[in-house]
Amino acid sequence: MGSILIKNGLLVTMDRERRIIEDGGILVEDRKISKIGKMSEFSGVRADEEIDAKGCVVMPGLICSHTHLYGMLLRGAPLFAKIKPPTDFMQNLQWIWWPVDEALTHDDAYASALVGCLEFLKTGTTLFADTYSGPNSIEGVLDRIGEAVERIGIRGFISFEATERHSREEGERGVKECIRYIEKVGDKGRVRGMLCLHASFTVSDDLLKLVREKANELKVPITMHTSEGLVDVYHNLERYGKRTVERLRDVGFLGRDVVLAHCVHLNDDELKILAETGTNVAHNPMSNMLNAVGVAAIPKMIDMGIRVGLGNDGYIFDGFENIRAAYLLHKVHYRDPRMMTPLQVLEMATIKGAELYGVDEEVGSLEVGKLADIIIIKPDVLPTPLNAETVYGHLVNTVDGDDVQTVIVDGRILMRDRKVLTVDEDEVEAIAQRSAERLWDRLKEVKPELDRIR
Fold first, then answer.
1. 328 and 305: one domain?
2. Does residue 283 lie within any of the structural domains?
3. Does the residue 173 lie in any domain?
4. Which of 2, 39, 331, 394 is the most buried (most CB within 10 A)?
5. What would the pLDDT profile of 396-453 be if each residue is shown by its tens digit?
């Protein structure tokens, strides 16, 4: 793999000092950043490829801390217009998502991962954490997803979302699929496995304890939806006499390697538990708005030292749209324009996301020795000057995913000047569209999935 020299850029490093370097350069050698600084320090430095980033922002690739790649296949789906609109989160699951889960195939998993990763690439996300849910396509499905991620060339944690919604045996099969894939791929490649549970209201204490035990043994992250809707809270109160996070603590589930998605309906006692156990949170503002579940107490979590990353929950894949949503949502929710700074939301989308999954020594910032996951952005419209003082504001308020010009992952250029170099975009879209049409055919008679929850 050849060396790359990025010249004359405005570098947003997201390093420990959050340095911004004007007229900066980055040298990439052997997949890693070997030199970074002002261009005056690069006299005589040459590389196999040189990229002039004058007038551009150069920053670490975005990190999506929680997604469902298969959500891509429901974009614009007309079939749900034929059912009675769900009135709350639980009906969304029963009437839409659980029937979709039942209909998914291995080919759907591959197609959605392929097109989802393509959209991530084109809009600047270089690392994601995905959970797949398909009770009729469990064994071997992570191989198909991993194949698609490898083909696009970005980086990902992937998992099967284990649930006991139908049976205890179904939950065990989901966990076994995660373990099989984790052991197959190891912890050094671009695509890695992790453990995943759906939510506390669809799993037993026994399954929670099993996954905790396996995470300790395999040294991998765990992720789970937590208190996204009130059903989670009510279920735990009615069955266990505890709120969601209290139950998770009492079974020994929580810890530094756990990423809880959503965490909308947590009280102050639960937030304190998260802080005390070092448990992480993946915030999904646009999905939470779409599902009308409420607003997570993200500013309070940050103040308490809880690590928070930014996800999309399978909804909008443009990371800059999610950054903007996180920036604005809490201002209007608290009726306080001071809530959330540009730097805070950019941290959530980069270095904090890396911290959630324990890879912050590898990616998440531009620093010597880290893997070269880099994006170069040139705003299409720039109404005010772009410099060290204005760049955070522009990244949050001006930039869209379409402004990402060049993407480098693992020291390899995957997109240059908006041209994707790893796949034929038309072919990927055709694969996804054929898969979506077949899935929609299978879903023409959508029936609510009303299985008993645990």
1. yes
2. yes
3. yes
4. 394
5. 999 999 999 999 999 999 999 999 999 999 999 999 999 999 999 998 876 666 655 5
Radius of gyration for the chain, computed over Cα atoms and rounded to the nearest angstrom: 21
User: Rounded to the nearest 10 degrees, what angle do helices 205-218 and 168-185 cross at?
Assistant: 10
Of residues 259, 269, 332, the one with CA closest to residue 304: 269
Tell me which residue has tokens 């939806």: 225
The Cα–Cα gap between 198 and 250 comes to 19
Q: Is 409 left (phi over 0), alpha (psi -120 to 50) or beta?
A: beta
Overall size of the chain counted in residues:
454
Determine the structural domain holding residue 393 and report its residue range: 4-60+368-420
Q: Name the token pair of 181.
A: 């894939």
Question: Residue 439: inside a domain, yes or no?
Answer: no
CA dihedral angle for residue 248, residue 254, residue 258, residue 260, rounded to 10 degrees: 40
> 29, 45 in Cβ contact below 8 A?
no
Q: If you write DSSP's letter for every residue of 82-136 in order, what string do you get?
A: GSPPP-SHHHHIIIIIHHHHHH--HHHHHHHHHHHHHHHHHTTEEEEEEEE--TT
**Whole-prediction pTM:** 0.97
Residues 382 and 303 in one domain: no
Q: Looking at the domain assignment, is residue 446 inside a domain?
A: no
Kindly report, residue by residue over 335-388, the tens digit of the pLDDT: 999 999 999 999 999 999 999 999 999 999 999 999 999 999 999 999 999 999
